[in-house]
Amino acid sequence: MASTDGMRIGILTGGGDAPGLNAAIRGVGRRALPAGATVLGVRNGWRGMIGEGSFFELDRRFFSGILQLGGTLLGSSRVNPMKLDHGREEVLANIRRAELDALVAIGGDDTLSVAAWLAEQGAPVVGVPKTMDNDLSVTEYCIGFDSAVTIVTEALDRLHTTAASHHRVMVVEVMGRDTGWVAVMGGLAGGADQILIPEYPVTIGEVVEHVNERGKQGSDFSIIVVAEGFEMEGLTAKDEAEGTRDAFGHVQLNRRGVGYRLAEMLEELTGNETRTTVLGHTQRGGSPSAFDRIWATQVGAKAWDLIEAQRFGQMGIVQCGEVTTASIRDVVAEQRRVPEELYRLAQVFY
Ligand code: F6P
Predict the structure, then answer these.
(1) List of domains in the chain
(2) What is the pTM for the complete model shown?
(3) Widest CA span in the chain
């Protein structure tokens, strides 16, 4: 193991923020400082590695009292150097200019894809898994997902009482991009009556039939969770939402208005009074759950272990309830989709 005394490490957080990021930053820093390293925060994700670079030193005080804070104290952005002219070269130049012996990239597939590429060029980069969408390969834990599910669960509990009082159909649109993890887990925990996710097609006829069937069985309200990436005839297709892309190049799915359109269709076809709640960015806001604090701390600390061992191109992940490691490239290799068994389980409670 190389000596870490006098080492300079950078930490960046990229992509959408998520509760637990500060816990991970703290996990890295609180291991690195006692080992004699100088820790630099990179401002606003990869944006802080472009041009002249934007860094600030993180001392012992910076890491105090941040475990429970939402968002990221380093700032974030969806700037992707791979998509900018000379972006890759500028990042590599900034690693040299800031004399970084290691860079910790905390993020989802876009942020980590850049990290994987850098490591393949020989740059000393390690990763930490973060995405409320929970769609990274190999790892069973991504920072922010548990907090998001907790927020969806609480929202569904609240919506149940008002739905029942007014005998309404409540459509609840949740985030998750192209996978239905937040919808399925939040829906299971909150007792949703139907869960519509991108992985498994359902027709409007089937949704209507289900609402009507519940009515016949004496339930005169329904809670329908729909993932923002769900597609169905009658809803704005993802490619029709063209023109509303973020800096990573993703369509901004909340602009499709899936929840509102689905509610309109249901009201017309069932005759039930229908309302829509779009949980939006509340799912990413506020304090992390205890689960996120604990695991974010562990995968953050693991990043430091990897740096100490000079195992660049690797990242801390969780498998079978334990923190272990995987190559960043494997973690971004494909999108982890909701398995059919879990989706079918949720349907048992419809
Ligand atoms: O990837 C995380 C995520 O929250 C997605 O679930 C959502 O589609 C997207 O980010 C929203 O991004 P923005 O913060 O740019 O609106």
Answers:
(1) 8-143+288-331 (3.40.50.450), 145-285 (3.40.50.460)
(2) 0.96
(3) 71
Bridge partner list, 276 = 171
Q: Which of 199, 207, 194, 214 is nearest to 234 (CA)?
A: 207
Please tell me the distance from the alpha carbon of residue 52 to that of residue 32, in angstroms, as a whole number: 25
131 lines ligand 1 (CB under 6 A): yes
Residue 163 structure tokens: 């739905």
pLDDT in tens, 271-306: 999 999 999 999 999 999 999 999 999 999 999 999
Which of helix, strand or coil describes residue 303? helix
Helices (H) and strands (E) in the chain, counts: 10, 11
Hey, which residues are catalytic here?
Answer: 133
- In 3D, which of 38, 30, 32 has the Cα closest to residue 8? 38
pLDDT of residue 2: 64
Q: What share of the chain is helix, strand, coil (3-state, %, to 5)?
A: 45, 20, 40
Residue 48 Cα to ligand 1 midpoint, Å, equals 20
Enumerate residues 6+ apart whose C-beta is below 8 A from 269.
204, 208
pLDDT at position 1 over 70:
no
| 175 Cα to the center of ligand 1, angstroms | 7
CA 199 – CA 222 distance, rounded (Å): 22
Q: Whose CA is nearest to atom 12 of ligand 1?
A: 16
Alpha carbons 107 and 80: distance in angstroms, whole number = 12
pLDDT digits 0-9 by tens, 161-201: 999 999 999 999 999 999 999 999 999 999 999 999 999 99
DSSP notation for 72-136: -TT------GGGSTTHHHHHHHHHHHTT-SEEEEEESHHHHHHHHHHHHTT--EEEEEB-TT--B
C-alpha–C-alpha distance, residues 127 and 110, integer Å: 12
